[in-house]
Amino acid sequence: MYLMRIGPRGAEKPVARIDDDAYVDLSDVAADFDEAFFAGGGLDRIRPVVAERAAAGLVSGFAGERIGAPIARPHQILCIGLNYRDHAEETGAALPAEPVMFMKDPDTVVGPFDTVLVPRGSVKTDYEVELGVVIGQVGRYLADEEEAAGCIAGYTVSHDVSEREFQLERGGQWDKGKSCETFNPLGPFLVPASAVPDPQALTLTLSVNGEERQKGSTANMIFGVHHLVWYLSQFLVLRPGDLINTGTPAGVALGLPGEPYLRAGDVVELEVGGLGVARQRVEQA
What we know:
The protein is of the alpha+beta class. It has two domains: about 1-65, no CATH class; about 70-285, Fumarylacetoacetate hydrolase, domain 2 (Alpha-Beta Complex). It is built from six helices and 20 strands. A six-stranded mixed sheet has the order 7-6-18-11-12-15, with helices on one face. Strand 16 and strand 17 (about 210-215) form a beta hairpin.
């Protein structure tokens, strides 16, 4: 059962993907895949609905609808920097003793095939494929990693687009280089945590114009997914529907010779193993 939201931006409807060609419409039983849905045990509630409707043939065929982000606007987007050893090394940064946390504006979230905009004045717009973690229940001072694992609703493909000059050369916090519009394409679907037996065994790849730039594995995280959820809960309250971006492997433009940053006309394709493929065209804002 893969959760998707399809339709025009701002008017997406919640569905469950059955296969590449068909879905079950859930708009009559779930207003949206949002905080209320996850907090109210929505995943458990819709499982039998999806099974019954699929068995009865109550499915619809995809007909070229826009695919939106698989979750509605999250309460917060929490991000972890320098969480892959090879990425820290390529940027010349020391390995962190604790997770490096920053935040993104929730309005950065767009669909997995929507356009990414290079901000006005930008010369260093960068790409980062990441494993996205969606929270399923309130997490407050979680006791350990086992309890943290129980707070996870599912996983998705996340693109943490960054503007490196804004982030690193303009003073202040990283957030200003992370929160430009369209800077967090998400999806195509949310895979429930129960269908991902080991989040530390997923491959991540990203290409620009068909050239592979990033290839890594969540096995190389400095801090694993369950540790991150536990850790963040010690500093803030995790809400159902929140998104955590867990870091990116080596190969970002910042760490490559010539710094091949994104330009209008570029096409970025990214994938996290078992969680789907996303593709965005880059245009100038």
